[in-house]
Amino acid sequence: MPIPRCANSSHHSMMAPMPSAADTTTAPRAGVRPQTEQPRSPRSRYLGWLFAVAIAAAAFNLRPVVTSLGPLLDQVRADLGMNPTVAGLLTAVPSLCFALFGFAAPGMARRLGPIAVITAGLGAITAGVLARSFAGGTAVFLLLTALALAGVAVSNVLIPVVIKRYFPEKVGPMIGLYSMSLSAGTSLAAAVTVPLTSALGGDWRVGLGVWAGLAGLALLLWVAVLVFRRERGERAGGGAATDRLPITRSRTAWAMACFFGLQATGAYVVMGWLPKIFQDAGVSEGASGVLLALTMVIGVPVSFVLPNLAARRGDQRLFVVVLASCGIAGYAGLALAPAAAPWVWATLVGLSNCAFPLVLTMIGLRARTAGGVAQLSAFAQGVGYLISIPGPILIGRLYQATGDWYLPLGFLALLLVPQMLFGLRAALARHIEDEAVRPAAPAKA
Fold this sequence. Notes:
disordered N terminus; Growth Hormone, Chain: A
């Protein structure tokens, strides 16, 4: 996967110049390859493979910060004297940090370059995960967790940017690699943290801190990429930047943000409440945990295949409808007969949650430049994560008020309708640059 080389150094800029009106009419559509390709040097090919491995390693480390904590939360609470209110706050902290620090990512990338910011983000993940395992109190633990989540947030936003910039002809496969690695890290941390902690002596500090080792390996890979890029003579900032787009004028950007937020709402509710739903239906604790793992594991192969398929089409509306339909069927089954076919319902819900790699793919396709992708990624994820914060809390309140899962699951199924509508708008083959920048008024005679 070679990194494309440009003859003009301005093409290396983080915010590449926006195309003229003539350019927009002749811009190649997503999935169309140029007729000719320049030969690549062995050095360029090796650096391309290093970059691809670094992206996969970074993605793998973007969720264990959260999913390794959940299984050990009771031990953490007891040891640190954490009250239930603060423990509940931990469920909202990830979305809040992803939103706040995600908004800051494009500005940091314009000053330092996206690769440098991602490298710093992985440093924050490594330091935060390692240091919080030595925390002596609740406040320090929360602060160090927020440090790690800040690193996750900027990496969330900027990895699609470097994919768009350095792999413009392979957006689908690279987003697939990124999404697959992210799903693998999510499911592995949830599945092995408890047995791994037990094998290492049963101390939660060791069980959480061990994930810093994998983050450190990813950090080393990104340091290598950063160093090799400087050896090639590229400036850290990537060149001159163009003015920022007035992205709030773009209907596609707003549709993408709402689609992102609604799919994130469903994903966080499933991760937090699915085992309880099955347990209330008579499924054992062990089996309910396996069913939750199934919803996450199914995303590993689908997250690799789906972006490739989606990037080959002019728009992605078919995938939006199929995934939402899977979710509606899955939630209906959970509400009406959860114990009758639990594996089927878990599979359908897991497929519905694969809207995440789909929206990442669409972010990479809905902007013409890496700078546009940076702004769209920050806007969609920042606004989207803010939208997702109330979801798990509201579902819990509905369950507490009614004592059963009919209303909460019906509400989740209902949310899939606006998710589908926003997704259909975001999936149209359009570019935010064309919507955000108003055409100049014709000159008066």
